[in-house]
Amino acid sequence: MTDASRLKATIYVGGLDNAVDERILTDAFLPFGVVVDATIPKPEQQSSAEAHRGFGYIEFEVPGDAKEAIENMDQSELYGRVIKVAAAKPQKESNEGLGSKTAIWEQEGWLATHAVSDEDRLAAENAKHDIDSRPEDPMRGLEGLDAAGPKLA
User: Fold this and answer.
1) Residue 34 pLDDT > 90, yes or no?
2) Which of 62, 90, 109, 143 has the most CB within a 10 Å radius?
3) String of DSSP letters for 83-99
């Protein structure tokens, strides 16, 4: 399965109670299709008393099952808590975007969008100069007129 199709078959489940584990999460979403994997991330600090961070991901075998699970389970109740179920978003790389340790202008995504070669910049300036040096069309602005002559009130 490609990464794109895996992402389409993966859902995010938020608002989980501390009593919920991977087995319970799998059992709750089993009616919608074959669950390939269920993951509940652990807290970043090992000393935390909480079992997990309150959200998880479920990967289905078929993307259509994930869509059905979202439609039926979003805003439903699991272990006394209302859960949020949505399509999973791709994980950001730690060196991209805000919060990274790399300057924004050194990031690949920013460079692809904003970096312009000197050759391209010179071509754009020349094209602008060519447009500015043309004489103005004397017929400009007359496109909407139906008949010749002044408008009568």
Assistant:
1) yes
2) 62
3) -EEEEPPPPPPTTSSTT
Q: Of all helices (H) and strands (E), which one includes residue 5?
A: helix 3-8
Contact in structure between 79 and 17 (CB atoms under 8 Å) = yes
Q: Does residue 24 contact residue 54 with C-beta atoms inside 8 Å?
A: no
User: Tokens in use for 63?
Assistant: 């993307």
Element housing 131 (H / E): helix 118-133
The angle that helices 22-29 and 63-73 make with each other, rounded to 10 degrees, is 90
Q: Residues 6 or more apart from 89 whose CB is under 8 A from it?
A: 12
What Cα–Cα distance (Å) separates residue 80 from each residue in 16, 24, 75, 124?
9, 13, 12, 61
Residue 26 has pLDDT above 80, yes or no: yes
| pLDDT value, residue 147 | 65
Q: Which of 2, 21, 13 is nearest to 63 (CA)?
A: 2
What is the DSSP-derived secondary structure letter of residue 135?
P
Sequence-separated (6 or more) residues with CB below 8 Å from residue 54: 14, 15, 16, 18
**Do residues 57 and 88 touch, judged by C-beta distance below 8 A?**
yes
